[in-house]
Amino acid sequence: MAELPVIFQDKDKVYYADTCERLKQAAKQNEIYLRAWSRGSYPGERLPRKSLTEVRSIGIWDAAHNQSWGLDLHCNEGIELTYLARGKAAFEVDGRTWILRKGHVTITRPWQFHRVGNPNVTASRLYWLILDVNVRRPNQSWRWPEWLICSQDDLNQLTRLLRHNEQPVWPADGEITRCFAKLADLLEHRQPNESETKLKLYINELIIAVMEMLQRKQIPLDAHLSTSQRAVEMFLTALSEHVDHDWNLNGMADQCGLSRSQFSTYCKQITNMTPIEYLTHCRLEVAAKLLQEHPEMSITEVAFACGFNSSQYFATIFQFRNGCSPSDFRSQYTYPEAI
């Protein structure tokens, strides 16, 4: 069976994690200054394999002028903190765009699609930290690194603050600014294999500073953002991008970490359809768009692209849903060439 096109990441696999290929290429061509310590596919020098393993990437970029490239929308393995030290930059999260200015800090969770650039990166100096807290879905329990010195009560409160609000951009205070500056100085002047103690200390200081900033803001919290229902809502929202997969009820439920019955109940509450009915609805919506916008595709090609196993079944169910055949539907959007 083909590997599922996972919409939320599983514990041992990362699907939508950023590979930063455009950033790597820009740095290779000396279009941008890059200094980073990382693991996996992230750019930079390799962090020691057995120390601070939750640190996925920490780095700096410095674009002295506007760039001709930008990052793709992506997710990360962990929670990502970025800080804009100089310049300005467009920052998109979940379809909404902010303009970052000097002193802004961003906080994104592992399942949030985001990118810097709209579409291209502007002149800016940006710092980042990606810290894995062992979650890939909103309804999973966070597990912070054991080397963080915060008390369990503080970590519980920080988790609530980060899980239960949708605000990704904040004006950083002086302490957060100092923490990022110390991390940047460490990156600039030391090597990863000799920096474990200071890196651990500075990340602890940053985490505490972020917690204290959020506490002072007295932000309204929404517990719904970390529920199983929220996980199902996010899955269903993204399902239209993956209609070509051979989904079944088990596969859809697994993506949300739920049993078949739990997933079915939430799906019915959210859409007033069973999971299979909603999947069919998404496939027919995508099919209608393909028929309208891609006249070069045959009816059979459209059917298979939308996850239907046969063109005959597709034609039958399309007729039932739309009151006309796929060919007749397409003819409504096919206009003769001007003479």
Percent of residues in helical segments? Answer: 25-40%
Low-pLDDT sequence parts: 1-16
Which whole number gives the mean pLDDT? 88
Structural class: alpha+beta
Please report the first level of CATH classification, the CATH class of the largest domain: Mainly Beta
Count of discrete alpha- or pi-helical segments spanning 4 or more residues? 11
Q: Could you say how many structural domains there are in total?
A: 2
How many beta strands in the DSSP annotation?
9
| H/E element sequence | HEEEEEEEEHEHHHHHHHHH
CATH architecture descriptor text of the largest domain: Sandwich
Which percent band covers the strand fraction? 15-25%
CA radius of gyration is: 23 Å
CATH homology superfamily name of the largest domain: Jelly Rolls
Task: Examine the coordinates and then state which fold CATH places here, giving the name of the CATH topology of the largest domain.
Answer: Jelly Rolls
Termini gap: 51 Å
Shape descriptor: globular
Please describe the biggest sheet, giving its number of strands, its sense, and whether it closes into a barrel: 9 strands, mixed
